[in-house]
User: Fold these one by one.
Assistant:
Number 1:
Amino acid sequence: MVDTKLNTTEFNILVTGFEKELTKANKSDSHIIEHTSQTKEFLSYMEEHNINYVKLIDQALADDYFVYLQQRQNQRAGGTLEEATISRHKNTIRKFWK
């Protein structure tokens, strides 16, 4: 898991709100940490591509992010991310958008 710092105030507020929703839904600490980390990584990717407002994120950008995940190095095990890991990222981002 990547510990990501976000530069955009809007993104930080959204992540904090998402974390509160997960807590309110009685999700486990590990679940909250994983989902928050994955959401930050997604939003950090957007920042790196000069997207600093959530309203500018469209399906094409999200698809680009998922392609990036398929190529991203697995920081723990080497190689690339497993398909199951990418699927968890996708599910997290879907939950975040709701």
Number 2:
Amino acid sequence: MSQHHKKMELSCKDCHASGQKVIPTKEACLTCHGPLDELRDAAKQPESELFRDTNPHYSLHYGDGLECSACHSEHKPAKIYCNTCHHNFEYPDFPTNK
């Protein structure tokens, strides 16, 4: 579990409502981290020569259809899903589980 969530004294069931060891849904994440439109606004990146409209919470390919777990994880290092193909996206404020 991330240090941030530990400090908030969350339990496993706060994210895994069923008590099962399954990846939480986007809806479960948005219970605390939402609403999604506010996440999109906060995460919008400045345009550059290489990229325009880069936003990790609204992809040109997937819209807002990706699950949070495509990038974020509590139990393993976070990753930037876009770099699966592009290899050159950088988000300076991207959280990692350090």
Number 3:
Amino acid sequence: MDNSKPDDTAMLRMIPAHAEGTMMRREQFGAMLAGGNMAILNFNHDALAIWDLIDGNRSVADIETALAEEYKAEDVHRFLLEFMRYCATSGHIILRNP
């Protein structure tokens, strides 16, 4: 992955995948992620819904469409892009161009 931050349009085309070595454990509050030298992350249920849709095949736009159908939330777009950027920066996901 190129280290520059993609703009929103470019981010929507990207295909996220879980980084090798990332482990996830479901908890009452959502989930806990850890792996290697990565920070431990606690996800609420909204973040876990995104994580569950990351499969290495769907684009960020595909994930947004799936979430919008389920959540009908106006801020899905903003939250999804923030989530993707944070997880890519922390090393928990890899973003690749299609």
Number 4:
Amino acid sequence: MPHTLVPSDRVEHVNVYGRDGAKLGSIERLMLDKVSGTVAYAVIKTGGLLGSHHHCPIRWDALRFDPARQAYQSDVTLEDLRAGPYVASAIGASVPA
């Protein structure tokens, strides 16, 4: 049986695709629950205009790994992400922890 564990640094910067097949962005970081030790959500960095980008949370259990693409798949779309909570930032800015 193949192993299913992966180091967090191998998940960061992996692409995420939406239900329509469009690239949503890439995983910027994982947010962990300090008590349970489980991943609560992934922060997705989406591309923006003129060097800006958005950081959007997606629940970890809403992502599925696609081994053929070596990427994650979600049932949301870019429009869903834009309608939800996000942090807008310029290139070089950091995401609040």
